[in-house]
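Priority: medium. Attachment 1 of 2:
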């Protein structure tokens, strides 16, 4: 099943990277119908204005709700549909995670509204939410970017690789960091087995599948405990075996 993503931005060229690599391939293969729109196409004045000064004063400009409303009315269905989500990148949103990517990947249609300046007039999200459209205000991390375009790139890439047929071997999606195990991924190695005096761990050359699997799980547990103790705290105790607890 094909997924459609509309991205609305005042810098459509920013999204050009989505023609490359796996996402580009998914588009050409018809797995992902990605359309990038210029918000200014929905302006009505000669200057194609999308912003104005903030009520209440303060620095910066705010994106106008009327322009965004015309754009979103054209792209969202008139009647709210649970399979069509409005995604609004914002540093004040819920943090976007692999779970969030999975959730978005299960939708049929996403409309991503990229803010600029001090963001979009708050009534835009308020209105579509009140009408019953699923609206996700999502942050890609605790830092501030100049616009939602990079966040849209992040989300489209994270969602795109989950679509069936995009990543060649679906097993590679299961084992990686932030996957089902709740652990960071173990370290990976390839040829040559010896490089600048550094050796690939013997067990990986042993051909002994059970031992390799145990080694990988131990390294994943170790790495996660050291780098992301918050992920260890979130693990389901039931999912750990006696050997895990020794690590
Ligand atoms: N004044 C806003 C605030 O403090 O919440 C920040 C606006 S930011 C300069 C402009 C736009 O960049 C936002 O509307 C949003 O689209 C995007 N943006 C910035 N940081 C982001 C983040 N961490 N995650 C997602 N989008 C972000």
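Attachment 2 of 2:
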């Amino acid at each position: 099943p094909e997924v459609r993503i509309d991205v609305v931005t005042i810098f459509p060229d920013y999204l050009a990277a989505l023609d490359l690599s796996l996402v580009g391939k998914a588009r050409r293969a018809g797995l992902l119908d990605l359309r990038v729109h210029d918000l200014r196409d929905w302006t009505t004045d000669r200057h194609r204005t999308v912003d104005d000064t903030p009520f209440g004063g303060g620095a910066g400009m705010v994106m106008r709700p009327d322009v965004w409303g015309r754009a979103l009315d054209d792209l969202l269905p008139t009647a709210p549909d649970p399979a069509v989500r409005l995604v609004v990148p914002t540093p004040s949103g819920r943090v976007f995670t692999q779970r969030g990517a999975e959730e978005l990947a299960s939708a049929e249609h996403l409309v991503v509204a990229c803010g600029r300046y001090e963001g979009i007039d708050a009534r835009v999200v308020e209105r579509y939410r009140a009408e019953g459209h699923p609206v996700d205000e999502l942050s890609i991390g605790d830092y501030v970017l100049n616009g939602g375009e990079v966040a849209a790139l992040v989300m489209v890439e994270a969602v795109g690789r989950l679509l069936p047929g995009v990543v060649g071997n679906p097993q590679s999606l299961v084992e990686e960091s932030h996957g089902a195990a709740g652990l960071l991924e173990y370290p990976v190695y390839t040829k040559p087995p010896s490089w600048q005096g550094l050796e690939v761990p013997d067990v990986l050359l042993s051909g002994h599948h059970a031992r390799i699997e145990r080694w990988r799980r131990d390294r994943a547990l170790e790495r996660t405990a050291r780098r992301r103790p918050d992920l260890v705290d979130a693990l389901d105790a039931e999912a750990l075996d006696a050997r895990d607890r020794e690590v």
